């Protein structure tokens, strides 16, 4: 009797468990066990000579024994919703409909990968075998707004889980063993891995290892796994709610099972590679619906990547920035480490961020470091050329991103914007000029390259510039200046003047014990104290600088502020401390003036107010002859954003607007009594 006939006959009957046990005993009595490990997994083994000696009715049950129904029985109307609304979100999705088109285009050729040297990744992985296939795939992706899955990073499974930040992948179920070898991931949230699961718990529904693949796809991708299955409406399907309240959708063929789960921006697919297995004792068996559901229960389908994956080279760049902020690098240190020094002019270092964008569509994402829509540094990396630093911005060389991945550069001369260059990244290597607009002595010129321009009116020039629309970048913060997050203290603090006594005592000890500069720093007071000859050279005063009802402690020689402290929660914190090249003064209206210098060619003058226990910069002026020796002055309104070039006269006018005042102080020794 043919196996198909046996299955057809079996569909006409439903044996009870007692009947199956009796028939199993009869079969085993006529089938010697020749394998010393009867439970060993053997894929689809058959033994025609042995089957020839068994009665057809007994053989019918032998094929399907072990408590399993054939998958065909799963189509009964009382247990299955046959294609009746299950997973409509999937069948109506853009990525599924795109897959149907691509499957139809490929026809029978989808089983082979192209080996033509003219086809490159990722088109190879989508089985493109000609330029026509490539064009068709691009057309489908553009129509449905999908991205191709690019080459992925492969890692051993433990490292894959660690690097991806996915978390625990499996629910802990006693007797269930997952074995995994490697995982693959891409930086934008795709990940997958292969493994096998064995369910060893008592009364296991399935005694064989289940080999599977797990795939997590952001919905904007064109999943190259799914389209191979073609029209899913021809499959057996049903919906199932797991014990973890996860809605799962099953689609099964004669030999494979697909388990889907939907997330807000992604979907999860688990593929059971074979629903039919066999061993020497039991012959071929088919996984039941109940067993498939029990297997699906072992996964957590809500997992998403916990972080953005970065090539090691990009991580190194971000680590350098972190070090620069922590150690207060000067301009020379930024230059020596091949980084833009513009973070020096940010009011809050935490405003610095990064993002990853594939600017030229070559499959590798570039690293952009900056803030808002301004690009400080642009790096690229690929396997062929390694890490490349494509641009490094300065005060007079700002770069911003425009629509369609165009990078806009504005050049300044004599305090005016004199040229605009619009670049497009090509092949991950070159920033090619797409358009330039130049101010000349005779007017304006524009053209595709600086060496090929034509005269235009100022109105025409500005029209070209305005046609490139600047966009904001979705930067991720990576500078961590205080990783400890504390719940706000809502209790009313109780302070007395005695809260500052310990600070004043430190100054007294600095003189009586003759502290050196290093000791002063360790004790938390300005190291300039060690250079004073007499304690009478400095004093202290209390001023409520932000009008919150609590006074700040200022230690000063009457002009220079050595230290400034404020009360926060139930303690005292330092807001600032002067040094040789870092000096603070008090101005009218309780403004704190800062004068800093990293050399003769570079100085910063900032003006801040105390607000909520922090210094809030309201204006900044910088002198930077390293950028432009003839026009070295820059201004930053509000203390954040890009620096605007100004004249020396304008700089002096701003600085002169902040009038320093003399600080009336008291005797420090009396403050310690």
Pick out its properties.
673 residues; alpha+beta; 4 domains; 11-stranded antiparallel beta sheet; 16 helices; disordered N terminus
Description:
The structure is a single chain. This protein has 673 residues and is of the alpha+beta class. It has four domains: 3-75, no CATH class; 88-296, no CATH class; 312-477, no CATH class; 499-671, no CATH class. Helix content is 21%, strand content 32%. It is built from 16 helices and 34 strands. Strands 13, 14, 15, 16, 17, 18, 19, 20, 21, 22 and 23 form an eleven-stranded antiparallel beta sheet that branches. β13 and β14 (366-371) form a beta hairpin. It is flat and about 100 Å long. Residues 1-84, 110-114 and 481-496 have low confidence and may be disordered.
Describe the protein's topology:
Layout: H1 3-10, H2 17-30, H3 48-51, H4 56-62, H5 88-91, H6 94-106, H7 131-144, E1 147-148, E2 153-156, H8 157-164, E3 176-185, E4 191-199, E5 210-218, E6 221-222, E7 236-241, E8 247-252, E9 257-262, E10 266-272, E11 276-279, E12 283-286, H9 289-296, H10 312-326, H11 331-336, E13 353-357, E14 366-371, E15 374-382, E16 386-392, E17 399-402, E18 406-413, E19 416-426, E20 430-440, E21 443-449, E22 452-456, H12 458-466, E23 476-477, H13 501-512, H14 517-523, E24 539-543, E25 552-556, E26 560-568, E27 571-577, E28 582-586, E29 592-599, E30 602-611, E31 614-624, E32 633-637, E33 644-645, H15 648-656, E34 666-667, H16 668-671
Parallel strand pairs: 1-6
Antiparallel strand pairs: 2-3, 3-4, 4-5, 5-10, 7-8, 8-9, 9-10, 11-12, 13-14, 13-23, 14-15, 15-16, 15-17, 17-18, 18-19, 19-20, 20-21, 21-22, 24-25, 24-34, 25-26, 26-27, 26-28, 28-29, 29-30, 30-31, 31-32, 32-33
